[in-house]
Amino acid sequence: MNQLEAPLSDYELTQAIARGAISGIGDLYERHKPKVYSVCLRMTGNMSVAEDLTQEIFIKLLGKAGSFRGESQFTSWLYRLTTNHVLMYFRQAVRRRERFPYLEDGCDTTHLNVSFGTQFLDRIAIDAALARLPAGCRSVFMKFDVEGYNHEEIAGLFGCSVGNSKSQLHKARRRLRKLLSRRIRHLRDA
C-alpha cells in the first residue's frame, strides 16, 4: 500500500479474510488486540489465560469474519465474539473438572464451581441492564468502560463534545447502579 491509500476499514478487512486473504487478520489484530485482551483479562482475572484467549479469538475470527455483515460497528461484533468465547472457556473448564476430577491440567478451576454460576448470572444481569440503557448512554459506556476509549476519542467517534461523553457515561453508570441494585434486592428477597 502506498502512502496515499487509506487503510482498509474493519469491514473491508473481514470481507477480504472471508474471501481467503488471511493477511488482513494482522491488521485487525494490531487494531483490536488491546481491547480484546482487556475484556479477556477483566472476565478471567488471569493475565496468561487472557493472553491465550486473545490469541484464540483472533484465530476464531479467521473462520467467522464472513459473518460480520457491517450492520453494527465491528467493535461491538468483536466484543460479543470475545465475551462468548470467554464464557465458553469457563463452561469447558467446569465440565472438564466435573468429568475428570482426578486430572490436573494446570488450569486452576477450584473457584469455578462456586463462582461460575454466580458469574454467569451476573453477566446475564449486566447484559439485561445494559439493554435497558438509552442507546447514547450505552454506546458511551461500552466505549469507555469496556473497550477502553477515552472521552476525546469517544467524542470524535460520535461527533459530540467531551462534556457530552462524560455526561452520557455518568448517566449510564447511575442508571446501571439503579437497575442492578433492583436485581440484587430481587435476588435477596427470592
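Next protein, fold it too.
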Amino acid sequence: MPFLVLDRLTKHYGASAAVDGLSLTVERGEFVSLLGPSGCGKTTTLQMIAGFVEPSGGAITLDGSDLIATKPAKRGLGIVFQSYALFPHMNAAENVAFGLAMQGVARAERDRRVTDALALVGLAGFAARFPRSMSGGQQQRVALARALVIRPRILLLDEPLSNLDAKLREEMQVELRQIQRSVGITTILVTHDQAEAMALSDRIVIMNKGRAEQIARPDCAYERPASAFVASFLGKTNLLAGRVAGGTLSIGDRTWPAPPDLDGGAVAVTLRPEKIGFADDGLAGVVRTRLFLGSQWLFQIDTGAGLVLVIRQNGGDAAPAEGATVALAWRPDDMRIARAEGGVA
C-alpha cells in the first residue's frame, strides 16, 4: 500500500485554482520533488500536506489514515523552511531539542537524540553555537537536524537550499541526499531549481498552473518529456520549427521519416543541446555566439530552423569560432515532436 496518497487534491482561492486535482502516490522512503515555476502550486501542495492550508477538495492519506482530519501538530511531520526559522536566542542544541521538549521527551533521552542528530548533519562540535555565529550552510544543517530529531514520518523541505551560494548549495545537495538515504525517511521537496530536483529525487512532479504535467524519474522526464512545457522547463532545450508532409518531417533543409501517427502540418521539435554535434553533413548554420564554460562549450547557431543551442564537452580540441559555417547533426531518436495540443510524440 502506498505510504502517502494525494487524491485529486485541490485548492481554490476565489475563482482561481492554486492546485487543480493533483493526484500522487509516494512510497515509504522515497524522495519526491515538486518542481515548477512560481505560482504553479507546489508550495500550496506542501502546505496542505503539512496542515497549514486547508484543501478545497480531494483527500490526503498517510499510511492509510486521513491526514486532513489530523491537526498539524499531530501529523508527525518534520519541516525545513527556506528561512530555516531558527530561534536566535537558542544555541544549536537548544534549537534541535525544542520539538522533543514539546513532545515531553525525558532530558537524558533528549540530550542523546540531539547529540546524534547534530552528528548526523556534521555539526558534532557546534552544540553551543548560536545561529548568529553560524554560516548559512551550518544554520541549514541545524534546521535539518531539528526536523529529523523528532523522527518524523515524512520530511517536508520548502526550498531549503535557495539561500545558499552555488558552491555550498551543490555540497548540501550531496549531503542532504546522503542523510536521506541513511535515515530512510520519506521526503517531499519543493524547489524551482531543475538541477536540484534531478540530482536529489527518485521521482519529480513537474507542475504547471496547479496541475502535474508529468510525474516520472528524473532521467525519464528529461529524456522523454510529456509536454513542450516539461521539455523547456526541465533543463535547456531547443524548440525547432518543423513540418510534416507525406510521412516526412522537415527541419530547415533536412528530412527524416515522421512518426506514423503524426498528422501533417507545422510541428515544434524539442531537442536537447547536448544531443547535437558538429558534422560534415547536417543542418547548415553559422556560429553566432561561443561561450567557454570550463568543462563545456556553449554555442548559439543561426540556422534555417531558427537559433539552435549546442553544448559540447570540452575535450581539449579546437572549437568552431564565431562566424564559422558549421553543420549540425543528431540522432532521430533524440527528437521529441510537439503536437498541436501541446503533447510530445
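About the second fold: The longest helix spans residues 166-183.
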